Amino acid sequence: MAFSCVALAQQPEKIRIESTTRGKPAVVTAQIFLPGRRDGKVPAMIIMHGSGGVREKREIAYAREFNAMGVAAVVIDSFSPRGIASTVRDQSQLSSYDMVLDAARALNVVAKHPAIDPARIGMIGFSKGGTVVIKAALRQYGLAGSEAGFALLIAMYPWCGDMPFDFHAANGAPLRMLVGALDRYAGVDSCREFAKKYEAQGGNLALKIYPGAQHDWDVPGSTHWIDAAGENASRCVYDEISAGTWVERGSRIRVMENGKPTGNSRKASASCMTYGVSGGYNAEVRAQSMQDIRGFVREAFKLH
Known about the structure:
Rossmann fold
C-alpha cells in the first residue's frame, strides 16, 4: 500500500482496501482526510456510512469536524465499489458482517499510515454503519482478524437486533451508543437490551438516548422525512441460542444452525420486517451530540 503526501484536509488521500462480499474477494475505497496542521503523528477516526452511502452532509461533514480537532478522518465507501447506491429498500445487498470486515481491513491499513498514531484509532458509524460499530465492539466477531485494535467506538442510531451468545468486549475500548428516543427506523428497545448485556459482561459502555430525536437527527435537511418502501427491521431481533445457532425471536425460525445457513432467512425476515422508515433533522440535538462526541474523542485520544 503506497501513501501519497497530503497536506490539507480539502485534498483527501484515496486508498483501496481488500475485503470480501459474501466470501468472495472485493475491493472497497476510502478517503483519508488529514488535519492541515500536524505536530507528529495524529489520532484518527474511521467513519462508516449508513444505508444511503457516503453523504456530504454527514460522513464528509464529520470528517471536517474531526480535522478541526486535529484528528484524521478515514471515510470508507462500502457501497460504490460494489455497485450499490443505497440499501434502504433492500438491506440484503450487503451485510453488516462484510462491512465489519471492511472496517477491520481499513484499520490495518490506517494503522500503518506514516501520519497516524496506530494506538489512537477510533471508529464512528451511522445507522447501518452504527451496527458495524457495535459488532466490532464484540469479541464474537474478532474484528474479522484485524492486526490492530480500536481505541474508541461510537455508534450513532444503530440497529441492535443481533444478540450473540457471547457478549464479551473485543478489547477495553470504550463503546458509546447514541440513540434518538423517537427513532422508529432502527428502534430503541433492542439497543437498551444490547447495552445491558454488554455491560453485564464487563464492557465499557455508555448509552445516551436523546429526547425528541428521530433517526438521522444530525443530517441537516427536512425535520421529518418518510420512505414508505424502506425496510424497517426495528421489530426484528435475532438470538444466538447456542454457538452458531441463531433464531428470529418472534417466530422462532432458525436462520443459522451450527454456523451454517438454514435457508430460512427470508422467511424469518418476513415474519418481523415492516415497511416504512422515517427520520428527521434536529439542530438542537445535533449540537448536543456533537459536543458529546468531541468529549469522547478528547478523552480517548488525550487531546487538550
